[in-house]
Amino acid sequence: MKGNDRLQSDNGYDHLDDSTKRQFKVHQRYEWFHILNDVMIATWFLIGSFFFFYESLVEAGTWLFVIGSAQMLIRPAIRIAHKLHVKDKLMNNSHFW
Asked: Where are the transmembrane segments (predicted)?
């Protein structure tokens, strides 16, 4: 299979059965949730850090740190949701999303 053919065939995973493909897609979704959450956390802390250079923005910077810290709680929540989702689907032998 050539490179271009591979791109057109379900991301190169067409040799996998449907259940495995669904599991892989679910895993990919949770990976994207992790990445998006991490980028948002970094953004809050970076902007908050710059706000500390200006006296008038220190309070806003502090709030951005609080938001970033609170959002760090989302990280384990995503992991728990992922594990529960996979466990539930495996125990019920039902289809993934």
From this structure: 32-54
pLDDT greater than 60 at residue 8 = no
Q: Which two tokens stand for residue 97?
A: 């999303």
Share of the chain above pLDDT 70, in %: 72
Provide the residue count of the chain.
Answer: 97
Residue type, 75: R
Distance from the first to the final alpha carbon of the chain: 28
Give the pTM.
0.67
Domain boundaries, the chain: 18-92
Give the separation between CA 65 and CA 68, rounded to whole angstroms.
5
